[in-house]
Amino acid sequence: MTTAKDLFVITMDPRLEPAVGQGDLSLALAGAELIDLLTAGAVALDGDRIVPEERRPPEDRLLAEAAALLTRQPPYEGVEDWLWRRGRDLARTYRTALEEGRELTRKRSGRLSLGSERVELADTPGRRRAAERWEEKEPVLAALASAVGIDRGPSDDEADIEDEAVTAVLAAVHDAVMELESVRQRRSIENAAFANLWRGP
User: Fold this and answer.
1) Cβ neighbours around 23 below 10 Å, total
2) What are phi and psi of 153, to 5 degrees?
3) What number of other Cβ atoms are within 10 A of residue 80's Cβ?
4) Which domain holds residue 47?
5) CA nearest 119: which of 132, 104, 141, 109?
6) Measured between alpha carbons, how far is 98 from 121 in angstroms, rounded to an integer?
7) pTM to 2 decimals?
């Protein structure tokens, strides 16, 4: 399992209120992939630019896909641009991959087969590993979860992260999620104003 998959598993907890937004999660998943690539030495940061290194592609399919999408010629892509480009519909991509790997299962609620369908986590080694990282309050996973609104109370998780590149990616994820929220709020205000215009006095 990768950090991105672990994060996705954590966000599938049915007890979470409110549920994590798919746009927020997609941005965080892109950040998680980049952190795993940094940790593996597949990329380095030059300022805010992502510089690919010549390494064997990651074994994980989605992480290998992320590595293949890196800009390999100068000027290299900035972290923020990467988050938005790679993050487009990434939550859906991970959900599909976990379903194909039988780590997510579809079930119908109620006794009738016509009940509403829901997706549940299967009891797999990957799920247990993600749960262990979460219970251990692993700093990177906790920081990514915090970025998408999963609050475990006061924490100094990011202070425990000594890698400056990883810290920079986490900060970019937080900024991108905040920017997405501001876009949502602006659209909500615009839609409300438009509706009021049509309703009239």
Assistant:
1) 20
2) 90, 180
3) 15
4) 3-199
5) 104
6) 9
7) 0.85
AA identity, residue 39:
T
What is the longest distance spanned by two Cα atoms in the chain?
65
Q: How far apart are CA 184 and CA 190, in angstroms?
A: 10
Of 22, 103, 25, nearest in space to 60 by CA: 103
Q: One digit per residue, pLDDT tens: the chain, 201 residues?
A: 899 999 999 998 877 766 788 999 999 999 999 999 999 999 999 999 999 998 888 999 999 999 999 999 999 999 999 999 999 999 999 999 999 988 888 765 555 555 455 678 888 888 899 999 999 889 999 999 999 988 765 455 555 788 999 999 999 999 999 998 888 777 767 666 656 656 655
User: In b/e form, how buried is each residue of 135-170, taking b as 16+ CB within 10 angstroms?
Assistant: eeebbbbbbbbbbbbbeeeeeebbeebeeebbbbbb
User: How many domains does the chain fold into?
Assistant: 1
